[in-house]
Design goal:
The complex is a heterodimer of chains A (141) and B (90). Chain A has 141 residues and is of the alpha/beta class. Chain A is built from 6 helices and 4 strands; from the N terminus they run βαβαβαβααα. In chain A, α1 crosses α4. The chains are: A alpha/beta (141), B alpha+beta (90). At the A-B interface, α1 and α4 of A face α1 and α2 of B.
Protein backbone atom coordinates (compact mmCIF):
# COMPACT_ATOMS: atom_id res chain seq x y z
CA UNK A 1 0.00 0.00 0.00
CA UNK A 2 2.88 2.39 0.56
CA UNK A 3 3.99 3.78 -2.77
CA UNK A 4 6.04 6.91 -2.93
CA UNK A 5 4.27 8.22 -6.04
CA UNK A 6 0.87 8.10 -4.37
CA UNK A 7 -1.32 11.03 -3.48
CA UNK A 8 -1.17 11.58 0.25
CA UNK A 9 -4.16 11.94 2.56
CA UNK A 10 -4.79 13.63 5.89
CA UNK A 11 -7.97 12.95 7.88
CA UNK A 12 -8.81 15.86 10.20
CA UNK A 13 -11.60 15.65 12.77
CA UNK A 14 -13.01 16.74 16.07
CA UNK A 15 -11.86 14.39 18.84
CA UNK A 16 -10.47 10.94 18.00
CA UNK A 17 -12.64 10.26 14.92
CA UNK A 18 -9.73 10.75 12.49
CA UNK A 19 -7.41 8.31 14.30
CA UNK A 20 -10.13 5.71 14.61
CA UNK A 21 -11.19 5.97 10.94
CA UNK A 22 -7.60 5.42 9.86
CA UNK A 23 -7.19 2.53 12.25
CA UNK A 24 -10.43 0.91 10.99
CA UNK A 25 -9.25 1.29 7.38
CA UNK A 26 -5.92 -0.31 8.28
CA UNK A 27 -7.71 -3.23 9.93
CA UNK A 28 -9.40 -3.88 6.60
CA UNK A 29 -6.68 -3.24 4.01
CA UNK A 30 -3.45 -3.35 6.00
CA UNK A 31 -1.03 -0.49 6.63
CA UNK A 32 -1.88 2.73 4.81
CA UNK A 33 1.39 4.64 4.90
CA UNK A 34 0.28 7.54 2.71
CA UNK A 35 -2.58 8.64 4.96
CA UNK A 36 -2.18 10.43 8.29
CA UNK A 37 -4.74 11.40 10.93
CA UNK A 38 -5.01 14.63 12.91
CA UNK A 39 -7.44 14.69 15.80
CA UNK A 40 -8.22 18.16 17.03
CA UNK A 41 -9.17 18.37 20.69
CA UNK A 42 -12.29 20.34 21.56
CA UNK A 43 -10.24 22.90 23.43
CA UNK A 44 -7.12 22.95 21.25
CA UNK A 45 -5.61 26.21 20.19
CA UNK A 46 -6.15 27.04 16.48
CA UNK A 47 -2.45 27.74 15.90
CA UNK A 48 -1.46 24.40 17.46
CA UNK A 49 -4.02 22.57 15.29
CA UNK A 50 -2.75 24.38 12.22
CA UNK A 51 0.79 23.29 13.02
CA UNK A 52 -0.31 19.67 13.38
CA UNK A 53 -2.08 19.67 10.01
CA UNK A 54 0.95 21.27 8.38
CA UNK A 55 3.24 18.56 9.77
CA UNK A 56 0.85 15.82 8.63
CA UNK A 57 0.71 17.27 5.09
CA UNK A 58 4.52 17.29 4.92
CA UNK A 59 4.65 13.72 6.20
CA UNK A 60 2.39 12.27 3.47
CA UNK A 61 3.36 14.56 0.60
CA UNK A 62 5.38 12.91 -2.17
CA UNK A 63 5.00 15.52 -4.87
CA UNK A 64 1.67 14.29 -6.27
CA UNK A 65 -0.52 16.30 -3.94
CA UNK A 66 -2.40 15.78 -0.70
CA UNK A 67 -6.12 15.27 -0.12
CA UNK A 68 -7.47 16.54 3.19
CA UNK A 69 -10.61 14.82 4.45
CA UNK A 70 -12.47 16.50 7.28
CA UNK A 71 -15.45 15.45 9.37
CA UNK A 72 -17.97 18.25 8.81
CA UNK A 73 -18.35 21.25 6.55
CA UNK A 74 -18.41 24.42 8.64
CA UNK A 75 -16.64 22.83 11.61
CA UNK A 76 -13.34 24.03 13.03
CA UNK A 77 -11.25 21.14 11.62
CA UNK A 78 -12.58 21.99 8.14
CA UNK A 79 -12.05 25.71 8.58
CA UNK A 80 -8.46 25.21 9.67
CA UNK A 81 -7.79 22.61 6.94
CA UNK A 82 -9.18 25.02 4.33
CA UNK A 83 -6.29 27.40 5.06
CA UNK A 84 -4.01 24.89 3.29
CA UNK A 85 -6.00 24.69 0.03
CA UNK A 86 -3.73 25.16 -2.96
CA UNK A 87 -4.51 24.36 -6.57
CA UNK A 88 -3.04 21.03 -7.74
CA UNK A 89 -1.30 20.62 -4.39
CA UNK A 90 -3.87 20.40 -1.62
CA UNK A 91 -7.58 19.57 -2.02
CA UNK A 92 -10.23 19.22 0.67
CA UNK A 93 -13.31 16.97 0.86
CA UNK A 94 -15.66 17.18 3.87
CA UNK A 95 -17.92 14.60 5.54
CA UNK A 96 -15.29 11.85 5.71
CA UNK A 97 -16.55 8.29 6.18
CA UNK A 98 -14.85 4.88 6.14
CA UNK A 99 -15.58 4.12 2.46
CA UNK A 100 -13.88 7.42 1.53
CA UNK A 101 -10.77 6.48 3.50
CA UNK A 102 -10.77 3.02 1.88
CA UNK A 103 -11.16 4.64 -1.53
CA UNK A 104 -8.10 6.81 -1.00
CA UNK A 105 -6.18 3.92 0.58
CA UNK A 106 -6.76 1.71 -2.47
CA UNK A 107 -6.32 4.32 -5.22
CA UNK A 108 -3.30 3.66 -7.41
CA UNK A 109 -0.58 6.10 -8.31
CA UNK A 110 -1.78 7.14 -11.78
CA UNK A 111 -4.66 9.49 -10.97
CA UNK A 112 -4.31 13.24 -10.53
CA UNK A 113 -5.16 14.99 -7.28
CA UNK A 114 -8.37 16.52 -8.59
CA UNK A 115 -9.52 13.15 -10.02
CA UNK A 116 -8.85 11.46 -6.70
CA UNK A 117 -10.66 14.24 -4.82
CA UNK A 118 -13.69 13.84 -7.09
CA UNK A 119 -13.77 10.06 -6.80
CA UNK A 120 -13.42 10.19 -3.00
CA UNK A 121 -16.28 12.71 -2.80
CA UNK A 122 -18.42 10.53 -5.08
CA UNK A 123 -17.60 7.39 -3.10
CA UNK A 124 -18.60 9.04 0.17
CA UNK A 125 -21.99 10.04 -1.21
CA UNK A 126 -22.63 6.69 -2.90
CA UNK A 127 -21.82 4.68 0.21
CA UNK A 128 -24.72 6.00 2.24
CA UNK A 129 -27.71 3.70 2.10
CA UNK A 130 -30.99 3.67 3.95
CA UNK A 131 -30.49 -0.05 4.28
CA UNK A 132 -34.02 -1.00 5.34
CA UNK A 133 -35.41 0.47 2.12
CA UNK A 134 -32.76 -1.39 0.14
CA UNK A 135 -33.71 -4.72 1.70
CA UNK A 136 -37.46 -4.05 1.20
CA UNK A 137 -38.02 -4.14 4.95
CA UNK A 138 -40.21 -1.06 4.66
CA UNK A 139 -43.17 -1.15 2.35
CA UNK A 140 -42.73 2.46 1.31
CA UNK A 141 -39.40 3.51 -0.17
CA UNK B 1 -16.19 -16.46 -20.32
CA UNK B 2 -15.81 -19.27 -17.75
CA UNK B 3 -17.77 -18.91 -14.52
CA UNK B 4 -18.55 -20.69 -11.27
CA UNK B 5 -21.59 -20.58 -9.02
CA UNK B 6 -20.84 -20.39 -5.30
CA UNK B 7 -22.77 -19.82 -2.09
CA UNK B 8 -21.55 -17.68 0.78
CA UNK B 9 -21.41 -19.84 3.89
CA UNK B 10 -19.66 -17.73 6.49
CA UNK B 11 -22.04 -16.19 9.06
CA UNK B 12 -20.89 -12.60 8.52
CA UNK B 13 -21.32 -12.72 4.75
CA UNK B 14 -19.11 -10.66 2.48
CA UNK B 15 -17.98 -8.23 5.18
CA UNK B 16 -15.00 -5.89 5.07
CA UNK B 17 -12.20 -8.24 6.09
CA UNK B 18 -13.53 -11.08 3.93
CA UNK B 19 -13.77 -8.69 0.98
CA UNK B 20 -10.18 -7.64 1.65
CA UNK B 21 -9.07 -11.29 1.40
CA UNK B 22 -10.82 -11.60 -1.94
CA UNK B 23 -9.13 -8.42 -3.22
CA UNK B 24 -5.71 -9.70 -2.07
CA UNK B 25 -6.33 -12.88 -4.03
CA UNK B 26 -7.67 -11.10 -7.12
CA UNK B 27 -4.64 -8.84 -7.58
CA UNK B 28 -2.44 -11.93 -7.98
CA UNK B 29 -4.04 -12.83 -11.30
CA UNK B 30 -3.68 -11.29 -14.73
CA UNK B 31 -7.38 -11.84 -15.40
CA UNK B 32 -9.99 -9.49 -14.08
CA UNK B 33 -12.37 -11.34 -11.76
CA UNK B 34 -16.02 -10.33 -11.51
CA UNK B 35 -18.30 -11.35 -8.67
CA UNK B 36 -21.97 -10.97 -9.39
CA UNK B 37 -25.35 -11.48 -7.77
CA UNK B 38 -27.48 -12.63 -10.70
CA UNK B 39 -30.72 -12.20 -8.73
CA UNK B 40 -30.03 -8.55 -7.97
CA UNK B 41 -28.30 -7.72 -11.24
CA UNK B 42 -25.31 -6.42 -9.34
CA UNK B 43 -21.70 -7.12 -10.13
CA UNK B 44 -18.37 -6.16 -8.63
CA UNK B 45 -14.75 -5.97 -9.67
CA UNK B 46 -12.98 -8.35 -7.29
CA UNK B 47 -9.98 -5.99 -7.16
CA UNK B 48 -12.01 -3.19 -5.61
CA UNK B 49 -12.94 -3.69 -1.98
CA UNK B 50 -15.64 -1.03 -2.10
CA UNK B 51 -17.19 -2.57 -5.17
CA UNK B 52 -17.22 -6.00 -3.47
CA UNK B 53 -18.76 -4.56 -0.28
CA UNK B 54 -21.52 -2.91 -2.28
CA UNK B 55 -22.77 -6.32 -3.38
CA UNK B 56 -24.26 -6.47 0.13
CA UNK B 57 -23.97 -10.26 0.08
CA UNK B 58 -24.87 -12.16 3.25
CA UNK B 59 -24.73 -15.78 4.40
CA UNK B 60 -26.64 -17.92 1.93
CA UNK B 61 -26.32 -15.48 -0.98
CA UNK B 62 -25.54 -17.13 -4.31
CA UNK B 63 -22.71 -15.54 -6.24
CA UNK B 64 -21.38 -15.99 -9.72
CA UNK B 65 -17.61 -15.79 -10.13
CA UNK B 66 -16.35 -15.07 -13.62
CA UNK B 67 -13.01 -14.00 -15.02
CA UNK B 68 -11.61 -12.68 -18.23
CA UNK B 69 -7.97 -13.16 -19.18
CA UNK B 70 -5.14 -15.58 -19.71
CA UNK B 71 -5.40 -17.25 -16.28
CA UNK B 72 -9.19 -17.00 -15.98
CA UNK B 73 -9.73 -20.64 -14.98
CA UNK B 74 -7.16 -20.57 -12.18
CA UNK B 75 -8.49 -17.22 -10.97
CA UNK B 76 -12.06 -18.49 -10.78
CA UNK B 77 -11.05 -21.68 -9.01
CA UNK B 78 -9.04 -19.78 -6.42
CA UNK B 79 -11.74 -17.18 -5.79
CA UNK B 80 -14.47 -19.83 -5.61
CA UNK B 81 -12.39 -21.88 -3.18
CA UNK B 82 -11.86 -18.88 -0.91
CA UNK B 83 -15.58 -18.06 -0.88
CA UNK B 84 -16.67 -21.66 -0.37
CA UNK B 85 -14.19 -22.15 2.46
CA UNK B 86 -16.01 -19.35 4.29
CA UNK B 87 -12.91 -17.12 3.97
CA UNK B 88 -11.17 -19.29 6.56
CA UNK B 89 -13.60 -18.08 9.21
CA UNK B 90 -15.36 -21.34 9.85
Amino acid sequence: MTMSNQIGGVIVSHGQVANELLSAAETVVGEVGHVAAVSIGWHDDVEAAKGEIERAIKQVSHGKGVLLMTDMFGGTPTNIAAMFLKENEVELVTGVNLPMVLKLATTNGDATLSDVAKSVEEQGKQSIYRTGALLDVHKTV
Amino acid sequence: MPEAKVTLINPLGLHARAAAKLVKLAVNYESSITISRPNKQKSADARSILSVLELGAKQGTELLVSADGIDANEAILAAAELIESGFGEI
